[in-house]
Write a structure and sequence with these properties.
Rossmann fold, alpha/beta, 9 helices, globular, 8 strands
């Protein structure tokens, strides 16, 4: 069962032939469960909804975490619409946390590639970019933690050209480039995070996570960063990868337990 997060999504355009943004729930039984909203990648032009979404949520369930997979809007929608969708999803889950058996103080975001950029935007842009609609929007849109998997971080040097064009258009201003370069937006309010990437990634350079880690450290934000030697872009859970990146799920689970997110 898919859950609509808005009665009337702001800036919705039926001519773009995309569904209204929704969440697919993977909820554990019981109360006070940790919860993660998963953002599949796709360069802001599409979404690997199965591979980096529906396949990921059962893994989160297996380690004791409820999950939602977010179908957010992509190009021809431009910024800030995707971030608006994720922030609304966070507020939606938090507002109905008792119904979902979720701890409202343990709601995280997990994103792959451009979905990782979206998750990082939610972590660094903790003020709501949308227009207040109802009581759901009284909730905080700040995630309590983040998990970033081979994420796009910057819209500047080392960024992913396709993601930048899809999100910001062909001629973004310097202000827009800065605003959506997550390494420039880290503050003391940015939540802790787990990050991984591979050195071999040719599509999204590893420099993205290095820039973000440096900014997190400068602002005193605790985080764990793993850079694996081998592995191409788009590994998702890396179940079929016999190289070092296949360890990321175990390392992430350990990090979540050590930081009381599980």
């Amino acid at each position: 069962m898919n859950l609509k997060i808005w009665e009337t999504p702001p800036q919705f355009n039926k001519d773009f032939l995309q569904p209204e943004p929704f969440l697919t729930p993977f909820l554990l039984k019981g109360e006070n469960n940790s919860c993660i909203i998963v953002c599949p990648g796709g360069g802001y032009t599409g979404k690997a909804y199965d591979y980096e979404g529906l396949d990921v949520a059962p893994w989160l369930n297996s380690i004791g975490c409820s999950a939602f997979v977010l179908d957010y809007r992509v190009s021809p929608y431009k910024a800030p619409v995707p971030l608006m969708d994720l922030q609304r999803a966070i507020r939606f889950v938090r507002s109905k946390s008792s119904d979902f058996g979720v701890n409202p103080d343990k709601i995280g975001v997990l994103g792959f590639s451009a979905g990782g950029h979206l998750a990082a935007c939610a972590m660094t842009r903790v003020n709501y970019v949308g227009v207040s609609e109802d009581e759901i929007d009284n909730q905080s849109c700040r995630p309590d933690f983040g998990i970033l998997c081979y994420p796009v971080i910057t819209m500047k040097e080392f960024g992913h050209d396709g993601s930048r064009i899809a999100l910001l258009g062909n001629n973004p201003s310097e202000e827009e480039l800065d605003l959506y370069s997550c390494e420039t937006q880290v503050t003391e309010k940015t939540p802790p995070c787990f990050i991984w990437h591979t050195f071999e990634d040719q599509l999204v350079p590893v420099n993205n996570v290095l820039l973000f880690s440096q900014s997190l450290a400068k602002n005193g934000i605790t985080h764990e960063l793993h850079i694996f030697d081998k592995g191409s872009h788009g590994l998702s859970l890396a179940k079929t990868d016999e190289k070092t990146a296949s360890a990321w799920t175990l390392l992430c689970e350990k990090w979540m337990k050590e930081n009381n997110f599980l």
